[in-house]
Amino acid sequence: MLMKNLYKTLKTLPVVACLVAGAAHAQDVKELNFGIISTESSQNLKSKWEPLLEDMSRKTGYQVKSFFAPDYAGIIQGMRFNKVDLALFGNNSAMEAVDRAKAEVIYQQVSKDGQPGYWSLLVAHKDSPVNSVEDMLAQAANLNFGNGDPNSTSGYLVPGYYVFGKNNVEPNKIFKRSMNGNHEVNALSVANKQLDVATFNTSGLERLKNSHPDKAEKLKVIWQSPLIPDNPIVWRTDISDETKTAIKAFFDAYGDEAAELEVLHGMDLSKFKPSNNDQLLPIRQLDLFKQRTAIMGNEKLSSGQKEEQVAPLDAELEKISLRMKTLESSQS
Fold first, then answer.
1. Strand, coil or helix: what is 155?
2. CB neighbours of 164 closer than 8 A, spacing ≥ 6?
3. Which of 107, 199, 202, 303 could link 155 by a cystine bridge, Cβ 3.0 to 4.6 Å?
């Protein structure tokens, strides 16, 4: 009886060994969660990014998983709570991630044609009588407006400053109706005459010309911003040095091979460019200007209260200005 039980025990040992080995192997699998901003439908973004992420998995040895959130805040929160390791952001959302989610800018997208950035737009239907910012503001009470995600650089921050802040008006107060949406939704809503005017950007317009040329033809640009640095790639500063080394090696080399460059061109991109948090300085400047304008225009505050509240903003603006001058000098 004893020998029989011993035989049964020995017979099961390989199975147990395999289970233990399998569990250990499962624990050894390294994962990276890559967050991608929702500038358009998740399905469209997934089809564009999956080839690159598959290459990243193969080249780094990590299992790279895409994480699409319905808005920018979802990716920022994902980084904050260690659910997202690295991500593609707009500059404004990257600034939020740096300030709130232990993030750091490491690379910058570069467009396929080598443009150093992109431009924020306001678009209207081609048949609309609205042909300029002046027309839009004059008719605002009768217009439905599509603003961007509050964490969007080109969809919200840039037009918020250059179009609305400089004219001392707020979209939520001047339009018949104002709502927030991503770039693709805003543009298609204008093309379908569901919105009269909306924020958009030049990168999104190029993509729309490829994916929905009939809709793109129905749009006209009524305003274009100054240049915006292209979207940054960021990582969490607390990921391991080993992980950082693997990520850096991938982005440094990606696009050297013809097949990789073809993937990038399919995303309207060329090779990624190394970057850092200084890329966000112009965006910080815009954000502080916007805050300052709001304080100075607040009729509920006394002149003394306004001075007190703008003083730290002015000090920060001075620091940014000096830093930007230093960078310009070093690059000239």
1. helix
2. 170, 171
3. 199
Instruction: Give the distance, in angstroms, between the CA of residue 273 and the centroid of all CA atoms in the same chain.
Output: 16
Task: Compute the average pLDDT of residues 215-230.
Answer: 94
Q: What is the rounded distance in angstroms from the CA atom of residue 104 to the CA atom of residue 172?
A: 33
Please tell me which residue, 47 or 136, carries the higher pLDDT value: 136
Nearest to 32 by CA among 86, 68, 75: 86
For residue 45, give the H/E element and its range.
Answer: helix 42-60
Rg of the chain's alpha carbons, rounded to an integer?
A: 25
DSSP class of residue 75?
Answer: H
Q: Is residue 118 within 8 Å of 154, Cβ to Cβ?
A: yes
Question: 126: part of which helix (H) or strand (E)?
Answer: none
Q: Is the pLDDT of residue 12 over 60?
A: no
Cβ atoms 173, 99 nearer than 8 A: no
Determine phi and psi for 115, rounding to 5 degrees.
-60, 140
Residue 187: how many other CB atoms lie within 10 Å: 29
Q: State the average pLDDT over residues 307-311.
A: 95
Tokens of 294: 């709001």
Beta bridge partners of 178: 145
Per-residue model confidence (pLDDT) at position 39: 63
**pLDDT value, residue 110:** 93
Q: Which residue has the tokens 């030049």?
A: 202
Structure tokens at 305: 């209260």
**34 and 65 Cβ atoms separated by less than 8 Å:** yes
pLDDT over 70 at 15, yes or no: no
Strand 103-108 and strand 273-274: the pairing is antiparallel
Q: Is the pLDDT of residue 10 over 70?
A: no
For residue 123, give both structure tokens.
């678009």
